[in-house]
Amino acid sequence: MCRLLGYLGQPISLDRLLNQPEHSLIVQSYQPREMTSGVVNADGFGIGWYHSTAETDPFIYKNILPIWSDINLPELSGYIQSGCILANIRSATAGQPVDLSNCQPFKHGRLLFTHNGFIENFRQTLYRPIRDRLNDTAYQLIQGSTDSEHIFALFIHHLQTRSNAHSPQQPANIAQITAALKDTIHSLNHLANSNPTKISANLIISNGRELVATRYSLGATPPTLYWLSHHNSFPHSAIIASEPLFIGDWHLCAPQSFLTITENMETHVLPI
């Protein structure tokens, strides 16, 4: 079970989120408090961010090392600044290889995606059914073997289907992302009814200006997901995290819900 993080707001250094908080993502990698399976998140990590001023595709830094042992990260995270950041520390499912292709976040054009959860017995249940649903663009996106990347490909498939060959150079807006995410959840439910399995899918997706997240499960307890906005230390900003990073007015997302955060820091929680 992974831990994930999303940030939207005023540009800050990556270090402000990854290392400085008392229960930072680095601390969560070796001392998580609310994981429902696994003990540590030591099977690699990834950080995705958008340029703080230029309109470019997002950047990603990944490593198969535990996040606490990457000697390059302190230098990078103290230098890089961004107003939109996604990060993931990985606890690999037994039998899944620990390599860069399986580290999150994943990206397509201007979109970043990260997932915390699982599809139970993925290779025996939904691996082939998901692939059989994908258009060619979404299918070709898959480089690794995780259920997470297949969920991302399914999302891209539905996004393109809704927007009639959506161009990755024209980022989808929050309404398009939310609609495609609903389609993705409905597809997972339908496939799981035909191929009985348990699913949990806490997701964060960004276009660089907005965040959309889910706390969702089928036949399982969903992992925890919290959000906080306009904290004194992070004014005009919002954070989504698997576990609170520090003491503050964190809100626990209800199970089976969407969380959207707009450019203006408007936060909405809606049922799936």
Automatic annotation (TrEMBL):
Pfam families hit by this protein: GATase_4
InterPro entries: EgtC (IPR017808), EgtC-like (IPR026869), Gamma-glu_amide_hydrolase (IPR052373), GATase_2_dom (IPR017932), Ntn_hydrolases_N (IPR029055)
Source organism, top-level taxon: Bacteria
SUPFAM superfamilies: N-terminal nucleophile aminohydrolases (Ntn hydrolases) (SSF56235)
Keywords carried by this UniProt record: Glutamine amidotransferase
Annotated Glutamine amidotransferase type-2 domain residues: 2-272
PROSITE patterns per the UniProt record, alphabetical: GATASE_TYPE_2
Name of the protein in question: Ergothioneine biosynthesis protein EgtC
Gene source species: Planktothricoides raciborskii FACHB-1370
Organism lineage: Bacteria, Bacillati, Cyanobacteriota, Cyanophyceae, Oscillatoriophycideae
Gene encoding the protein: egtC
